[in-house]
Each structure stands twice: as C-alpha cells, then as structure tokens.
Amino acid sequence: MKAETLVLASASPRRADYLRMLGIPFEVDPADVDESWIDGESPEAHVDRLARAKAFSVGSRHPSRAVLGGDTVVVLDGVILGKPRDAEDAVGMLLQLQGRDHVVVSGLALLAETGDMLSGISKTRVRLRDFERADAEAYVATGEPLDKAGAYGIQGKGATLVDAIEGDYYTVVGLPIPLMLDLLRRSGRPYDFGRAV
Predict the structure, then answer these.
(1) Least confident of 6-10, 79-83, 110-114, 191-195
(2) Active site residues
(3) In the predicted model, what is the mean pLDDT of the chain?
C-alpha cells in the first residue's frame, strides 16, 4: 500500500464500510490492546484512551503512516456497557436498555505521519423501544449483537429496536464522520471527497 493510505487500527467491518463509502483509501491492521476499564475512569476518558492506544499500537508497525484508532461504548446511568461476553449477557444488556435513553460515546484517535496524536470524542443519545424478552432473545440469536457495544447494531437488524436518536448516527456505529474529518483536516489530510486524503 502507498504511504499516504490510511491504516485503520480496527477489525470493525462497519468502520471499513464507511471509509469505503467516503472513498478514503485505507488498509486494515487491527490493534490488540487491553480494553479493560480503569477504576474511576469516565466513559469519555475510556474511549479516548483506548482509541489512542489502538492508534499508537498499530502505528508502531507502520512508521510514518497515518493510523486511525477508535473505540465505542454504551453508557446507561453512568455505567459502561461494552461488548457482551455471550448471548445471555447480550439479552441482559438489551433488557436493561429497552424503553430507556442511553448515550453512545465514540472516541477516535489519529496518529499522523509526523508522529502527532490527535483525538476527540462524540456522543449521541439513543432510546430503544419497549420490547419483550422473546424479542431480545430472537435478535441475539441472529448473532448480530455479539460483537457490538450495548449488544445492538443500529445499522442492521438492531434498527428495529431503536425508537429515537438525538445526535450523530455515525457515532452510534463507531465512526463519527464529522470528528474523523476534523482530525484528518488538523493532521494536514483534508477530505476532498476521496481524492486528497
């Protein structure tokens, strides 16, 4: 790949899909970092720290390349809901979220070719509709929510569980586009509809 091609430090197919949609050339090299929550850490600090750690970790394998890392969590009553451990955990998360507002917090970090690290966070409020345990179990049985923070994917079948959204849709899927474009611009890689990044 060319040196100017962005490196995506994530195995998320959603992030890759949206980079493709925007016409941004990239290659994937997933980060492997400990995603444990540090005691007392706010959700905002958590996603910022992990996005930076992922970009830095992968950046060490790609010197002088721009590397994009990201992390997303769901926050309900101040408690972080990450990816479910298993199907039963996913059902439990969905039942906690149903009929209530929660906040999705996404962090992005861009390790620029110069070695500068730029980062930021984006938050969106989401409300899931009321539904029965059988609905949650049927959705979990599709396998879709097992690798997603909060155990639902708004861009897939999980859209049927969503009642309302207030804020940036792309924050919920883990790639807040306005934030990413700001980071690219600040790093000297302004977006030009896929032609100049």
Answers:
(1) 191-195
(2) 71
(3) 93
Terminal Cα-to-Cα distance of the chain (whole angstroms): 14
pTM of the model: 0.90
Helices assigned H by DSSP within 5-132: 13-22, 43-59, 87-97
Whole-number Cα distances in Å, 147 to 89, 92, 101, 106: 12, 15, 21, 15
Q: Do residues 18 and 174 touch, judged by C-beta distance below 8 A?
A: no
Torsion, CA 39, CA 45, CA 47, CA 52, rounded to 10: -110
CB atoms closer than 10 angstroms to residue 138: 13
Q: What is the pLDDT of residues 84-96, one digit of tens each?
A: 999 999 999 999 9
Query: What's the pLDDT band for 196 if we cut at 50, 70, 90?
Result: very low
d(CA 77, CA 157) in angstroms, rounded, equals 25
8-45 burial: b if 16+ Cβ within 10 Å, else e: bbbebebbbebbeebebebeebebebebebeeeeebbe
| CA–CA separation, 9 and 35 (whole Å) | 14
Cα of 48 vs its chain's centroid, Å: 11
CA gap 110, 7 in Å, rounded:
10
Q: What is the CA radius of gyration of the chain?
A: 17
